[in-house]
Amino acid sequence: MRYDIALNVTYEYGRPVVGGRHVLCLAPADLPGQQRVVAASLDISPRPAERMRRTDFFGNTVEEVAFRGQLDEMEMRVRARVERRTPPAGLDISAPLERLAAEIMSQRTLGPLSPHHFTGPSARVKPDPAMTAYAQELLAEDMSALDLVRAVGLALHRDMKFDADATTVDTPPAEAFAARHGVCQDFTHIMIACLRGLGVPAGYVSGFLRTNPPQGEKRLEGADSMHAWARAWCGADAGWVEFDPTNGIAAADDHIVIARGRDYSDVSPVKGVLRTAGSQTGKHTVDVAPLAD
Amino acid sequence: VSAVENTTGDADSLIAGYSPLPGVADELIDSSGQVRPVWRDFVGFLSSLNHDEVGQRFARGDQYLRDAGVFYRQYGDALAGERDWPLSHVPLLIHENEWAEISAALVERADLLEDVVADLYGENKLVAEGHLPASLVAMTPEWLRPMVGVKPRGHFLNFIGFEIGRGPDGKWWVLGDRVQAPSGAGFALENRVATSRVFPDFYAEANVHRLAGFFRVFRDSLQALRTESDSRVGVLTPGRLNDTYFEHAYIARYLGFDLLEGEDLTVEDGRVMVRTIAGLRPVSVLWRRLDSSYADPLELDETSRLGTPGLVESIRQGRLAMVNALGVGVLETRALLAFLPRICEALRGKPLAMPNIATWWCGQAAERAHVRANADRMMIGPAFSTRLPFDMDDATLLGARLRARGGESLSALLDTDGVKLVGQEAVKLSTTPVWHQGKLIPRPMSLRIFLARDGAGWRVMAGGYARIGGTEDASAIAMQRGGSVADVWIMSDSKVDPTTMLPPPAAPYTRAEPGVLPSRAADNLFWLGRYVERAEGVMRLLRAYHIRLAETAEPNAPLLRWTRDHLDLYDIDPADGVPEQLRATLASAIGSASRVRDRFSVDGWMAINDLAKTSRRMAATVKPGDDAASAMSVLLRKITGFSGLVHDNMYRSMGWRFLTIGRSLERGMMMASALAHFADPDAPDGSLDLAVEFGDSEMSYRQRYAVATGRRTVIDLLACDDHNPRSIVHHLEELRDQIELLPGSPNRNGQVQNAHASPAARAARLAHAGLFAREPDTLDEAALLEIRSNLAELSDLLSSAYLS
User: Fold this and answer.
1) How many angstroms separate the CA atoms of A35 and A22, rounded?
2) Closest chain A residue to B305 measured between Cα atoms?
3) B152-161, B476-485, B668-677: which has the minimum mean pLDDT?
4) Is the pLDDT score of A164 beyond 80?
5) Are B139 and A120 in contact (CB < 8 Å)?
6) B402 pLDDT band (50/70/90 cuts)?
7) What is the pLDDT of chain B when averaged over all its residues?
8) pLDDT of residue B213
9) Which of A168, B187, B360, B686 would suit a FRET pair with B449, their CA atoms being 20 to 30 Å apart?
10) Helix (H), strand (E) at residue B274
């Protein structure tokens, strides 16, 4: 599937800020075998005094920008054409749950794909007894890692209410879980906590969703803003598997990846501390239009 | 009582009462019960002193520490704040031969740690080859992913510390590696100065290795790390609330480096710059006393308020040398100690020259079983903690105690949370003598030793920082738990090199260039000047008020009401003897002073603290009237003492200039307001006298005008007479002159303007000329209030040009 993607992010400051420095993680990723960026651009206004691109620890492309002088608003515009081809789901070659721990141990690496980064607590996802207990209820005999990932993702889709106004970007997952509501970020963080609680390495994917569904299908939740879903390491053979708990489906051709990390903190679209006493408001709009093949 | 009875007696009797604890080694007495040879002369000397002499000597050391302002901060006790430095006056003595062995072993360990950390942030061969579990590294909070693949300029480690202790078999053990931001080297220096004042005669003759050479080498090696010749070296501190802030300020001053906080810095095009009163100045080496994760909120801990966005990128570009490199804290992780012995075997083909405390990481089945079976002689605690084993926290317990706690059994805990736990052998530390009620008694101790790189390799400081337990229980060694500290003397058999920090006499004379003044420091000095002056002015007004209240005993007398109206301007209610707002102003002054401890004399610091303490004490009891008047006199004497210290003794640096500008601004503004109010034609009788008293100018007035106070003469003396140091014009002149001497500040476009042409300088010249040309008669209330608002405007101009 090919898409034309348009993302606009704007920040307005109640009082001008001085000398902002940001790390931006906004553009679709190039993922050999899954996703190809045909063309992409990121325009920023006002023009930053410094701009440089690099790859972060998890392999994501980020841009660092810095402004001099006063700034009362900032706008970032991403335009990209992306080709998305996820391999079709084959047989379940994931590890049986009881063998997963041993398979994790056997991974003697700290590379970006190593499961070890995704087992312990991360900046925004801490172990949580309530979520672990919730996930434990879903365990069944002879489950594979992939079975569990699906079970958790589907259960959250069933039990949690999508509510765009109930939480903020800083709502702790435990709070959203207790109220069983939130947006894709909350769904994803909760799914990560559930999986880690049962020893399944799990991480966060930021991205886009196709805005308008194919004819006759339901519009997906989160399609008009930036999206997020979870990924889990299901053993040495199956590797990483992605699942969207907000919509209760495996991430596939409708999901376009921007970046991957342990949780939102690793991939937040605009990082940077603003030393300002005044208010700041940020908003963004997304359009992901499929192209006729 | 004869002198003989009063002395501590001969060495034998001093030793006779000293009995080492069973089952532990002792520094003074060897295993056969004999005094170790290295201690003999010192013990002999100590026993030749009588009790009074010992007391006087110890007091001399304590006095030095108080005068030098050495303190430590007690955590969890906000009220107590700074505590006296707990020096144990008897040093720890170690012979240089034994020291050479210790040093060689620690240099080996330092090189090993460098290799380990370079691998953890580089190739990761230790993990790939199975010497370190990947899961352990991945779960260690101090392993910072953004630093992976980033090569530091030079080395990862440049200045490190090792905590070591002597076991029952007499051998030394490494208890922990201190690489993140090792503290104690500055305190070791202060301990040395204090202890050498306790034993000046003995110290001068004894062959004790000196410390200064070590610091000189380290200073030079930091200088050599700079990339740009005009860039500076800074000490990066988390700030005054840190428990070792005193040491940061002390060592920055001692080495001649700038003491910087994260907000002093900004990054432009990969270069780290200090915001100074003269614009941005480059820094290319930072000696970091701040934990790595706080250094850059953009790439490390996003919640940090102590860091500087862009620092990591600057390091990545090779523009900044961070000492030690960001991320080296991973080496302090307790669980790593379990693997270092094997890593040493693997990388070096031989065991560690000095073993570290035996440690088992319970994330592995065999190790977990071992800890379970031997829990009673282990300390069990968090695996990823970076605390030392003897800095016992609530989370670290002896296995026996953990077992006794009931509830969740130890065994179950190991099963569910093994990954998060380590067992460490509960080593019994050796004891060293401390002086207690006229005799020596043994107390457990551990020793911190410092290593720094020079061009050739590691240098070991010939001395150290001994921490001594307050009781026989080794777990109470931390200062926070009542422990004390002692100097460490490395004794030579021959004469030692008496190095100092001063350059050799043959070196050409150069005047050290004064450091750049960060805007934050200038701002604090400016406000310190203003707060102190405001407090003084308010005290004078209050004293005048209470003297009159005592005379008339009629609070509603017109002059008293008139004075209360004026005090209201400062939120002061004289019904309280020592009003809360006055104490708040003094507290603000201390707040400002505490942020510039490195630029501020210890005497000044003590004076201002004493002032605040006295005012707090008085507040509880002082009543309006006579009582309050004399209280104000006491406070005024103290505050003028402070001002005298600052203005007579402080070097005329840029820092002093901001302090004095703040003072003149405030004094000018207060006098203009006071004259506008008290010299008002409608003011009640006695107002003019009160104004003269506020201006502390009764004597001058009587000398100059042998008449009763009149409006014209009072205005002349207090506003227009440039010979009167309390007059407005005098302070306008001072402001004009000092502002002209400030560096030109860069304008919006980054061009440095001539200070002469700056808006602040122009405003100051104008204000001075305006008043200078005036006849006293024409200075009515409106004119005086205009002067006041001109000064307020000048304050804003200075703030925007230099202080933000």
Assistant:
1) 26
2) A273
3) B476-485
4) yes
5) yes
6) low
7) 87
8) 87
9) B360
10) strand B271-276
- What's the pLDDT tens digit per position in A121-159? 999 999 999 999 999 999 999 999 999 999 999 999 999
The pLDDT of residue B501: 56
Which of A15, A17, A18, A21 should be substituted to probe chain B, the one whose Cβ sees the most B Cβ atoms within 10 Å? A21
Distance from CA of B301 to the nearest CA of A (A): 9
B752 close to B746: Cβ distance less than 8 angstroms: yes
Question: How many contacts, defined by CB atoms under 8 Å, are there between A and B?
Answer: 70
Quote the pLDDT of residue B646.
Answer: 81
Residue B597 pLDDT more than 80? no
Q: What is the spatial distance between Cα A238 and Cα A144, in angstroms, rounded to a whole number? A: 11
Report the sign of the C-alpha dihedral through residues B402, B403, B408, B411, in that order.
Answer: positive
CB atoms within 10 A of CB B313: 26
Burial bucket for residue B770 (CB in 10 Å: 0-12, 13-18, 19+)? middle
**Degrees, nearest 5: CA angle B639-B641-B646:** 95
Q: Is B753 exposed, middle or buried (0-12, 13-18, 19+ CB in 10 A)?
A: middle
Whether the per-residue pLDDT at B80 is higher than 50: the answer is no
* Beta carbons within 10 angstroms of residue A129's beta carbon: 9
Can you tell me which residue has the tokens 């532990």?
Answer: B24
- Residue-wise pLDDT for B514-563, tens only, equals 567 888 889 999 999 999 999 999 999 999 999 999 998 888 999 999 99
| Whether B433 contacts B18, CB under 8 Å | yes
DSSP A239-269: -EEEEETTTTEE--TTEEEEEEESSHHHH-S
* Both tokens assigned to A234: 């299901």
Percent helix, strand and coil across chain B, each to the nearest 5: 50, 15, 35
What residues of A are in contact with residue B339 (Cβ under 8 Å)?
Answer: none
pTM of the model: 0.86
**Token reading at A22:** 């940001």
Spell out the residues 6+ positions from residue A95 whose beta carbon is closer than 8 angstroms to its own: A103, A144, A145, A234, A235, A236, A237, A238
Q: Which site among A116, A124, A274 would you substitute to test the B interface, given the most B Cβ atoms closer than 10 Å to its Cβ? A: A116
Residue type, B46: L
Put simply, the answer to whether B127 touches A108 (Cβ < 8 Å) is yes
Cis peptide before B556 (omega within 30 of 0): no
**Is it the case that residue B316 has pLDDT exceeding 90?**
yes
Q: Is A216 left (phi over 0), alpha (psi -120 to 50) or beta?
A: left
Nearest CA in chain B to A270: B298
Going by C-beta distance under 8 Å and a sequence separation of 6 or more, which residues neighbour residue B644? none
Token couple for B297:
């909120």
Distance from CA of A20 to the nearest CA of B (A): 9
Tokens read off for B278: 């003269």
Cα torsion B205, B211, B213, B214: sign: positive
Write down the residue that tokens 């002054």 correspond to. Answer: B589
Spell out the alpha helix ranges (H) of A198-238. none
What residue spans of B225-354 are helical by DSSP H?
A: 245-255, 311-316, 340-348
The ipTM assigned to this model is 0.94
**Nearest-CA distance from A73 to chain B in Å?**
19
| SS3 labels along B78-122 | CCCCEEECCECCCCEEEEHHHHHHHHHHHHHHHHHHHHHHHHHCC
Residue type, B393: D
Task: Give per-residue pLDDT as tens, B194-220.
Answer: 999 999 999 999 999 999 889 988 999
What pLDDT shows up at residue B230? Answer: 85
The letter for the amino acid at B596 is: V
With beta carbons under 8 A apart, name residues in chain B contacting A21.
Answer: 267, 298, 309-310
